[in-house]
Amino acid sequence: MITDKVYKWCKQSATVTSELGEDPSQCPTKVFKKLYESHDHDLHSNESGDSLGISADGTSSFEQIDHLQRALACGNWGPSEPSELFLTIYGDAISSLEKSPTSGVVSPPLMGSTGVVPLTIVAPLPDLCRHLANCIARAKYEVFLATNFWIHSDASTLVTNAIKELSKRAGQRGERIVMKMVYDRGDPRQAWENRLSVPEDQYSGGKVRLPSAEDIPNVDLQVINFHRPVFGTFHSKFTVIDRRIALLQSSNIQDNDNLEMLTHIEGPIVDSFYDAALLSWGNPLDPPFPLLKSAARNAPIPCQEPEGAGLSLNKETDILAEHTTTSPCYDINLEQEAQRINGRIYSSGEGSRTGGVTRHLNTTIQPDTIGDSPEIDQDIEMTPYMTLPEHEPVAMALVNREPYGEPLLQPLLNAIRRGVVVSCYLCLGYNDAGELLPFQNGTNEMFANRLYNSLNSDEEKMRLRVFYYVGKDQTKPIHNQFKKRSCHIKLMIVDEQIAIQGLSEA
């Protein structure tokens, strides 16, 4: 149920971002508490009956309005028309703010919005970092990067090279870039202070090795180490570029064997990611972001601008040089990026199409893994970078939660029993040691077995379909303990209408 209190939060004009735009010296988390927590007891007394639809006898007219209508009224959907299924899910999500508005990690008026997706990436982790690197290098004003785990690696070097390129380009324009980073590297001091400012001598050395101020003279880089002992880690992985582009990815910044996913998002929803970035940073902004008063909702969508769409100096058949840590190749737009990545897979001189896929999936930690799939398996080609046709903004919601959630077992069983086909794509053995800890509900195999044995009839069991990830060049799953072909993607698709990209394991 969407209460009057939640409705009021969603309809007010002030947000953390707008308040910081007026006074950047404020602390984002304190602004949030002032807006949404300080005066809960006055919500009704401070509003007229007309503004909240409260009748003379104290009964809210919203009690008579359908849940879907309330959800529709609590978002900024523009000309888009959210589906009934979308509104049902969104309504449930915003209802949870009643007990803990801070758990949303975004100002409620920004939780529901619209956006476009010009690019999705499903690929080994280095390909995600290559796109992240390109977006950073093309930035003009500011960058916010959040990740759970960062360690010096080939993956991180792709990003740090881009920060150096960013500084170089800014210097050529006579400008400076503001860049802020948040990661989670546990520190005993975080028992008292969750957000620790990381000094340059620490973040530029050791296992992190971000660029020093001397290396990036035209970038004001600040780093925060954010961890909440006992309560949970900072597990977000997203980046906001110039308040116009948001990158949502499943990966940390490290070398591993994972298949990962990144979604490139533009449009008004970027303001929501921006607000979440400010709350994740949590501390006063010094220096402030230059675009605090320049909302994405009032700006052209970058991928739909003439200078950003379709511009390419290469023929579609050209094989472009690989973007590596020792030889960076920065592209002018998404199409050229896709051409550089996709065009090399089956043209890498390996002698077979499967060999080309193997070369692409092999990373620094497992360069010698051998693919055994037949050539016919490559008839449906591997396409890591999927550029999508231009489309009108669609309804989107930014949903965060506390570091725990309701068990999924019973809802999945309920869905199967009412006739829904549930298909689970899992990674064999992923994080088994962690999942065997108390209250984690067991490994993927244990969970699948428990699901199956909880179903009563053969008909119900036929509607449960469990698959284990098999690399594009393989014929069978490889257990995660071997670190050769793992999958770290978190994605849910419902009725081919709703896509939910997540950042957490279940």
UniProtKB/TrEMBL annotation:
Superkingdom of source: Eukaryota
Q: Which residues form the PLD phosphodiesterase domain?
A: 230-257
One example of the protein's molecular function in GO is: catalytic activity
UniProt cross-references to PROSITE patterns, sorted A to Z: PLD
PANTHER family cross-referenced by the UniProt entry: CARDIOLIPIN SYNTHASE (PTHR21248), PHOSPHOLIPASE D (PTHR21248:SF22)
* Listed name of the protein: PLD phosphodiesterase domain-containing protein
Species the sequence originates in: Penicillium canariense
